[in-house]
Design goal:
260 residues; alpha/beta; Rossmann fold; 8 helices; 49% helix; globular; binds nicotinamide-adenine-dinucleotide; EC 1.1.1.30; NAD(P)-bd_dom_sf; oxidoreductase; 3-hydroxybutyrate dehydrogenase activity; SDR_fam
Length: 260
């Protein structure tokens, strides 16, 4: 379904971003990977995906805290692939602390990576998308873009902001063939959440298994983690022609969390 499309997926060396990049490549899109990590491991991932999917897969190491590097990520993909048709703003980090103890540098980093990077990437991608009259922007927000929990102020502010930014872009460029939508996952068992499981298990003096089920999954009625493949399936749908009239929307995949 994505034959002849080219995609940039930020934060795609791990977790949800890697699953989206993998599904996009398997659906025929050329893909630009991005994210942090060990260079040799990233190259292995890139080469394996390129081979398995039979499409061009590249990697750009832009740091999502650096606007100039983000612009270069999009420009490099456009030069290599001839277009950036799909942009997935996925890179994100978490830090858990009460507001009065929240380190200011962590606040700034979370706002930069989770929110401002989506602005910088979108700004860089829009001229080409408008010129070609086709663009699909998929922003990976969170259940925490819709509701709050204690001790995650920066993350929650960034994700509420990302949903707002999604709507702003959607209404601004709707007549140019560009769509912007957000996905709001509940808890997905990625490295980002594994750290929280370990911290909670240590604090409560219980096993990681119990911490996952009884503490982390407490707000998620199914008491099961969402999978990265389930998020990727929605991201593929939003990039497909079937989603042409979906714009400015947010889709919860959270086992019923935000239905409470
Ligand atoms: P992850 O830690 O597995 O992946 C995060 C990715 O972002 C990695 O590729 C990492 O290298 C990259 N990244 C981090 N900082 C970066 C930087 N400065 N520059 C470039 N890349 C950077 O986490 P994940 O769970 O897959 O998270 C992906 C997105 O999904 C995030 O935006 C996260 O907030 C969101 N999300 C996750 C969950 C969950 O439960 N895991 C739930 C809702 C939303």
């Amino acid at each position: 379904p994505l034959k002849d499309r080219a995609a940039v997926v930020t934060g795609s060396t791990s977790g949800i971003g890697l699953a989206i990049a993998t599904l996009y490549a398997r659906a025929g899109a050329k893909v630009m990977l991005n994210g942090l990590g060990d260079a040799a491991a990233i190259e292995q991932t890139r080469a394996a995906l390129e081979k398995a999917a039979g499409v061009e897969v590249r990697y750009h190491g832009a740091n999502m805290m650096k606007p100039a590097e983000i612009a270069d990520l999009v420009a490099t993909a456009e030069a290599a692939f001839g277009s950036v048709d799909i942009l997935v703003n996925n890179a994100g980090i978490q830090h858990v602390a009460p507001v009065e103890d929240f380190p200011a540098d962590k606040w700034d980093a979370i706002i930069a990576i989770n929110l401002s990077s989506a602005f910088h990437a979108t700004k860089a991608a829009l001229p080409g998308m408008k010129k070609r009259r086709f663009g699909r922007i998929v922003n990976i927000a969170s259940a925490h873009g819709l509701v709050a929990s204690p001790n995650k102020s920066a993350y929650i502010a960034s994700k509420h902001g990302l949903i707002g930014f999604t709507k702003a872009v959607a209404v601004e460029v709707a007549e140019h063939g560009v769509r912007a939508n957000a996905i709001c996952p509940g808890f997905v068992h990625t490295p980002l959440v594994q750290k929280q499981i370990e911290d909670r298990a240590r604090e409560a003096g219980i096993s990681e298994e119990r911490a996952a089920k009884e503490i982390i999954l407490a707000p998620q009625p199914t008491k099961e983690f969402v999978t990265v493949e389930q998020i990727a399936a929605m991201a593929l749908y939003l990039a497909s022609d079937a989603a042409a009239q979906i714009n400015g929307a947010s889709f919860s995949i959270d086992g019923g969390w935000t239905a409470r």
